[in-house]
Amino acid sequence: MKSKQNIYKFTKILLASSALLLIGSCQRDISELQPAKNPTNGDIFIDGFSPDLIYAAFGGSVPTAFQVDKSVTYNNSAASMSFAVPDFNDPNGSYAGGAFFTSTPRDLSDYTTLSFWIKATQPANIDVLGFGTDLGANKYQVSVNGLPVNTNWQKVYIPIPDAAKLTAERGMFYVSEGPENGRGYTFWIDDLKFENLGTIGSAQASIFKGQDKVTNSFTGVTNKVDDIATIFNLPNGVNETVNVSPSYFTFNSSAPAVATVSEAGIITTAGTGTAKITANLGKNLAKGSLTITSAGEFLSAPTPTQNASNVISIFSDKYTNVPVDYYNGYYAPYQTTQSADFAVNNDHVLNYTSFNFVGIQYSKPTIDATSMATFHMDIYLPQALKAGANFTIQLIDWGADGVYGGTDDSSASKTFTAPTLTGQKWVSFDIPFSALGGLRSKSHLGQIILSGTNIDNFYADNIFLYK
């Protein structure tokens, strides 16, 4: 979330100067005292700010984008919330956005949804609206993206995934919206509050896109429970996808000695064996899982010995890397390769799964390798080498214009098979440029394409050129 820029308090602080009455004749056993409960007020903006509500504009937004409007309101209410989205390149800020939060936590555990009415001066899609942002830990964030609005008032619901978690919540509402097609506009929100509705359907929760994934790991490797989603059936009949913080879920490991998972959804491989990671939202099991098979201690790739002054590094912890656009281009629709990169003891490793081919690109700027003699790369196949497996490294030079797809592009490749290519150990490839005859130039190198057959998964490290 973008950091706050300016904080505007719209509440008036009333300092009560009434006398403090002390009654000394009455004593009470301190063990009988109950913890004070947080206020349960669900109102946020009903004709004005609710008690103790504070507004903070996000950094980079127009600080004055939010205003209280008494002329455009829903159902002739006394006031609404107005947000003026700026035009593109507005010197005052690039978007309208901020958080509404309280200094005193509220108990929202008896509510089921945030609701409000919204309209705009034109059809638009609001980038993000939600609650749980308090400019602190933001532990229980919930949001919707791309909410469609138009010139008519319409009611919006953002369901609470598990209200039992919200006994001390400060983040009441937040919003962020940029220009539509480069132009600004205004939208209004009114009657903003938490409600208890019996017409909100139970959440259909999922992790890892609802898929049962499998991965290999090593002791010390951390992963994250990702692609978390919840779908609610709303009172208007719409099935709405809601983004939720991992903290709403209870994560489970079938074998904590092999892998643990934190409240924030961080998975840590702890030992050798197999563990299955699942999650619950309340009492309901979320769809999807991750089965981790750990081989134990990770064997790092060989440490390069080349002097840094003789190296142009693309990916290595030993050297300073050149700017890289990406290590996985995700070339649709033909590429199946996914990335699950990891680090063990600050040793960063590229991890390619479901491999068929993948592109690494460095175009800003391209690499001038005229003084370099050799391309180097280390790979590790975690499984035994399959029959017929091969691995191809292709280097592409974009020619004098330095642009992909020009008439002066050239490339050359080298394919490796057994016995050079092997499984379950690091293999180092050193390819002299003199062996890449199809590469007419190496002064504007822009891409590496890795492809293979019968290789499902591999790790890569120490990708560099050297003299």
Structure, briefly:
The protein has three domains: 170 residues, Galactose-binding lectin (Jelly Rolls, Sandwich); 91 residues, Immunoglobulin-like; 159 residues, Jelly Rolls (Sandwich). 0% of the residues lie in helices and 44% in strands.
Keywords for this structure?
single chain, 467 residues, mainly beta, Jelly Rolls, Immunoglobulin-like, 9-stranded antiparallel sheet, 7-stranded antiparallel sheet, disordered N terminus
What would your notes on this structure say?
- With 467 residues, this protein is mainly β.
- The chain has three domains: 4-14 and 37-195, Jelly Rolls (Sandwich), CATH 2.60.120; 204-294, Immunoglobulin-like; 308-466, Sandwich (Jelly Rolls), CATH 2.60.120.
- The protein contains no helices and 34 strands.
- It has strands spanning 4-8, 43-45, 53-58, 66-69, 80-85, 96-106, 113-120, 124-131, 142-149, 154-159, 169-177, 185-195, 204-206, 212-217, 222-224, 229-233, 239-244, 249-253, 259-261, 266-269, 273-281, 284-285, 289-294, 311-315, 338-339, 342-344, 347-353, 357-361, 374-380, 390-397, 410-416, 426-432, 445-453, 458-466.
- The strands form six sheets. A nine-stranded antiparallel beta sheet has the order 1-3-6-11-8-9-17-16-13, with no helix packed on it. Strands 24, 25, 26, 27, 29, 32 and 34 form a seven-stranded antiparallel beta sheet that branches.
- Strand 19 (259-261) and strand 20 form a beta hairpin.
- The two termini are 44 Å apart.
- The model is unreliable at 1-33 (pLDDT under 50).
